[in-house]
Amino acid sequence: MKQDQFLRVLDRDEAERRFQAALAPLEPLGVDVVPIGGALGRVLAEDVASPVSVPGFDRSNVDGWAVRAADTFGATEHTPRRLCVSADAVEMGRVPTGSVEPGTAMAIPTGGVVPRGADAIVMVEHSRVEAGEVVIVKAVTPGRWITYAGTDVAQGEVVLRARETCTSRETGLLAAMGIPRVSVFRKPVVAVFSTGDEIVPPGTPIAAGQIFDSNAVVICDAVRELGGEPLPLGIVPDDADAIRSMLRRALGSADLVVLSGGTSKGPGDLNVRVLEEVLGPPGILVHGVALKPGKPICLAASGRKGVVVLPGFPTSAIFTFHEFVAPVVRALAGTSAHAGARTFARLPFRMSSEIGRTEYVLVRLVSDSRGELVAYPIGKGSGSVTTWSQADGYFVVPARVEQLDEGETVDVVSLGGARPAPADLVVIGSHCVGLDVLLGRLRAAGVTSKAIAVGSEGGLAAVKRGECDLAGVHLFDPATGTYNAPFLEPGLELVSGYGRMQGVVFRPGDARFEGKPAEEAVRAVATSPGVVMVNRNRGSGTRVLIDRLLGGARPAGHAVEATSHHAVAAAVAQGRADFGVAIDVVACDRSLGFLPVTEERFDFVLASARRDRPTVRAFVAELARPETRAALRERGLLA
Prior knowledge:
The chain is α+β, with helices and mostly antiparallel strands. The protein has 15 helices and 38 strands. α3 (214-225) packs parallel to α6 and α4 packs across α5 (270-278). The longest helix has 20 residues, at 314-333. The radius of gyration is 34 Å and the shape is globular. The two termini are 57 Å apart.
């Protein structure tokens, strides 16, 4: 059946304008009065003025003696001043009944009320008691070590402003002023549910073709971070009646409704068709925005209540949520508009963009040898569940731009507000399970790291450009029959890593591979009809090995480039491909058949200029530790 396409694809700004205009005025929904014990994270609805002065009395800042400053003038270790000890002493929480007369001193604790007559405090360290007298060895000036009443906060002074979010600092201040309750804006309630027959909740056994519901978890927590109250409603199958019932429930229970997914079973978008039936005016406002990722988003309203259908793919859902939903939640919660910290960074390589759509590119940031930032795009696609959690920020490619050149400067907006803290160690290059072992052990020792998988050749280029501390590589040189060392240039050094076995992976019982030499089996099936392979990404060491095995043949699936050994094994295990090349460790993890091809070296390249960095030295030392070598062998590597 022919599937209906988007109603009309709009640019981002027009889509936002229509949506917010339908919900206007976007303002807080009401006021709650809560005890300060429940004020954490809430947004103040009005200014807060102190009902008292803080402190409410003249207060001593130290343990010592309350004195008249004039009685201490000239006091030194060699010419001390002697004062009579007052019969009275200051007690905590009580106003002194006695006073400090000329030539006397009264004992006072830190936080005690300064007695009448005293205008300074002598620290106990600058005094001693001899025969009923206080011996003063350091003079003080009037006001020394005294905080006067109202110095911190004067009665009637505004100390907190409306629309400030209460953290522990604000709640502590409220308590210090004796305020037991505070007026805050009501949290907007946001109903959240996911749709799709393929969606299952985390913790449920999962079958091929199913995915865990990550969207609802991310969206609910994002609502909390924005000052809202999520109302999780679970998962709804691709059934119009079920979606209709849940949508009506959500509209009756929440201030804003967010759902994700819904393009399956019949022509058109199932969720959008239900919205058309259920919503009152103005109804659907936008269906399709010229964004990448996030084109299929639907923005609607029933009265002044917003309804948003996010794309089902996780990265698309998160991006479009933050672009269109987050500003609405903030406005309803009364929180201030958020703008992530911006910084400029350089692109390490050329990248293309789809002209006509504004593209948001998630990146990881590293610093080069000059301290300048480099933005590595994370190209895992809108269906990835890891890109958002791994990214440091994103930059925007305008709709009219088709290509960005290597070295071009991009404006990166950080995720979470502040610029991310730099990692102690940056590793760019090929990925390996052994690298996971090494970085995990370093993290336990307090060394943070950032690993970016771009393939061996990409890692080698990154080292040369000074963009990382180390590059994981496994590059074979046919001329010498050796790995990695032939690719070194002046200024680069090789850190010996470990060995691993590369080979052909296939499903057990496949007679085309079972029991045969790897090269013979691959050459035999490479031109056979119906055989599908899964390739590796260009620039990886494994891709070089695959090309050598194929000998120029291009079987079906040759253009499908997986970016890791795990992805190759998954494609074969799930039947999307018949064979691929990966290391024996992942073949064992997936219970796949394995034909060994070669034992290769996985080593690390570093720039000589970075050799003596403490974290690089820590990595090299960790790699050499007997316990680490044992951990690598336990993982199935040749260490």
